[in-house]
């Protein structure tokens, strides 16, 4: 298992994480088997959005004796009422539910306290200025949570939260279809069939800016909806017009700026093991570039996907990394110190480009690589 730094949190999380769907409605023995498999494979990040009390109790029991091996992404603002999940901003309900969560998990802390499901600017503004954020900050000060996170499907609301400096982790829906859709307060819009009725070209600029801003500010991303609820894996349901593979979806998400872990929605041991197998999959199995270039409803023409098909460069430039640093600088309008320092230690820089065009000939997305290298040389001075 490969591990990544989760932004500025100081945490290291496994590339493959586990969503709580797999634990819900399972007897304790099956929950324990899932946790056993996670521990054996090194999967250490668990997202806990559901407030289902039985799930929480079973997981807490299964974690006994090995709690320190896992990073818990525990959600604030989710409650269990009348036998079902509900979202709330009522601070007393939030406090009661979170206390119940810790008690049932048999722990006194969670590494991440995730403010749940903020999909509109107005909701973010209310959370930011209200009792929910005050409570999250109180929990962090007391050491009950290690850092503050926020989950969202809306890049506009998410970007406002990231730029506020109040959150350290963003849980966001990242996949190649959702990334083409503009911001919306209605989650159903980004997955609706009508939204893909016409051919779509290139990533939505707000989503691209969100990922790059997270990278620049040190806000780590944990990914939800990497498979679009399974639709992207189904040729009849995929909004791309063609099915993608599990490995392609995982690799796409893991090559976005700031992404640290993909929370897999595994519901069975077999599904969990399939996601874990990404770690030993070949580059050919992971490769999404040629598959994306052939999708009938989507085109990323001219947009660098950081897929690495441009390699090898005859003078050794890591074109994808240089382009990522260039895009981070463009998003900021200046060169952030961290980006400048990371660029400076590259063994080969854009100024060494000999404009041979080999990279452009190999790129499935017709990216103007030579032009990008010229821009990077001007931006970074080398």
What profile does the largest beta sheet have? 8 strands, parallel
User: Helical percent range?
Assistant: 40-55%
SS element count, helices = 16
What is the fold-level CATH name, i.e. the topology of the largest domain? TIM Barrel
- Please report the first level of CATH classification, the CATH class of the largest domain: Alpha Beta
Kindly provide the radius of gyration, computed on alpha-carbon positions and rounded to a whole number of angstroms: 21 Å
Structure commentary:
- The protein has 382 residues and is α/β, with parallel strands linked by helices.
- It folds into 2 domains: 3-287, NADP-dependent oxidoreductase domain (TIM Barrel); 319-380, no CATH class.
- Helices cover 40% and strands 16% of the residues.
- The chain is built from 16 helices and 14 strands.
- It has helices at 28-41, 53-62, 91-105, 121-129, 131-142, 155-164, 187-191, 205-217, 246-254, 269-276, 283-286, 289-293, 319-332, 337-344, 358-362, 369-380, and strands spanning 3-5, 12-14, 16-18, 45-48, 71-76, 78-81, 84-87, 110-115, 145-152, 169-173, 200-201, 220-224, 259-264, 298-299.
- The chain has an 8-stranded parallel sheet with strand order 3-13-12-10-9-8-5-4, with helices on one face.
- Helix 6 packs parallel to helix 8 (205-217) and helix 8 crosses helix 13.
- The longest helix is centred in the N-terminal third of the chain and has 15 residues, at 91-105.
- 45% of the residues are buried.
- The mean pLDDT is 91.
């Amino acid at each position: 298992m490969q591990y990544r730094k989760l932004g500025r949190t100081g945490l290291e999380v496994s590339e493959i994480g586990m969503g709580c769907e797999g634990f819900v409605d399972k007897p304790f023995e099956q929950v324990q088997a899932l946790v056993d498999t996670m521990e054996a494979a090194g999967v250490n990040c668990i997202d806990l959005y559901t407030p289902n009390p039985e799930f929480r109790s079973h997981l807490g029991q299964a974690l006994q004796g090995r709690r320190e091996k896992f990073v818990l992404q525990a959600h604030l603002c989710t409650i269990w009422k009348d036998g079902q999940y509900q979202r709330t901003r009522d601070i007393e309900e939030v406090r009661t539910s979170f206390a119940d969560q810790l008690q049932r998990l048999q722990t006194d802390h969670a590494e991440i306290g995730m403010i749940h499901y903020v999909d509109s600017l107005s909701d973010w503004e209310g959370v930011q200025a209200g009792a929910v954020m005050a409570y999250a900050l109180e929990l962090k000060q007391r050491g009950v949570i290690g850092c503050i996170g926020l989950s969202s499907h809306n890049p506009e609301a998410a970007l406002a939260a990231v730029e506020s400096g109040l959150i350290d982790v963003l849980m966001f829906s990242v996949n190649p279809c959702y990334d083409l859709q503009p911001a919306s307060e209605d989650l159903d819009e980004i997955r609706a069939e009508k939204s893909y009725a016409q051919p779509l070209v290139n990533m939505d600029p707000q989503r691209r800016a969100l990922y790059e801003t997270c990278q620049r500010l040190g806000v780590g991303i944990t990914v939800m909806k990497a498979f679009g609820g399974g639709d992207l894996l189904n040729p009849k349901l995929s909004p791309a017009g063609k099915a993608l593979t599990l490995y392609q979806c995982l690799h796409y998400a893991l090559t976005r700026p700031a992404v640290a872990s993909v929370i897999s929605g595994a519901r069975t041991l077999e599904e969990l093991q399939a996601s874990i197998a990404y770690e030993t999959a070949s580059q050919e199995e992971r490769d999404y570039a040629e598959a994306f270039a052939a999708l009938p409803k989507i085109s990323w023409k001219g947009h660098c996907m950081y897929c690495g098909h441009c390699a090898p460069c005859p003078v050794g430039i890591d074109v994808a990394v240089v382009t990522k640093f260039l895009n981070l600088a463009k998003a900021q309008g200046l060169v952030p110190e961290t980006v400048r320092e990371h660029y400076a230690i590259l063994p080969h820089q854009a100024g060494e480009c000999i404009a041979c065009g080999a990279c452009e000939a190999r790129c499935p997305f017709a990216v103007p690589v030579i032009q990008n290298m010229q821009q990077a040389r001007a931006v970074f001075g080398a």
